[in-house]
């Protein structure tokens, strides 16, 4: 059985964490980034650029979670 530190030091887990963190940051700054690109003070929630940036961040989080889940098959007890 793997120790938690051995699990966290796998390259797929590290890459997954990086993807997830970048995705969360993109989601958090999506509105401000869209306002900066559009050069507007007021932003509509149905703006296609805003939604595109937001969904890109969510997709990065999903990819990160999948990368983290890849090495799990080796962590279960195999009697």
Topology readout:
Layout: H1 4-8, H2 11-38, H3 48-69
Helix pairs in contact: 2-3
Name the poorly predicted regions.
none
| N-end to C-end Cα span | 10 Å
Which descriptor suits the 3D outline?
A: elongated
Give the strand tally. Answer: 0
Helix and strand sequence: HHH
What's the tally of helices? 3
Main beta sheet: none
Briefly note the structural class of the backbone: mainly alpha
Question: Helicity range of the residues?
Answer: 55-70%
- The chain-level mean pLDDT equals 88
Instruction: Estimate what percentage of residues fall within beta strands.
Output: under 5%
- Rounded radius of gyration (Å): 17 Å
Q: Can you give a write-up of this model?
A:
With 79 residues, the protein is mainly α. The chain has a domain at 17-63. 70% of the residues lie in helices and 0% in strands. It has helices at residues 4-8, 11-38, 48-69. Helix 2 (11-38) packs antiparallel against helix 3. The chain starts with a helix and ends in a 10-residue tail after the last helix. The mean pLDDT is 88.
How is this structure best summarized?
The protein is 70% helix and 0% strand. The chain is mainly alpha-helical and 79 residues long. The mean pLDDT is 88.
Keyword list:
79 residues, mainly alpha, 0% strand
């Amino acid at each position: 059985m793997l120790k938690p530190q051995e699990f966290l030091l796998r390259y797929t887990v590290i890459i997954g964490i990086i993807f997830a963190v970048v995705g969360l940051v993109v989601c958090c700054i999506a509105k401000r980034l869209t306002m900066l690109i559009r050069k507007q003070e007021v932003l509509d929630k149905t703006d296609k650029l805003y939604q595109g940036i937001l969904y890109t961040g969510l997709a990065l989080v999903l990819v990160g979670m999948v990368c983290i889940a890849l090495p799990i098959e080796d962590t279960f007890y195999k009697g």
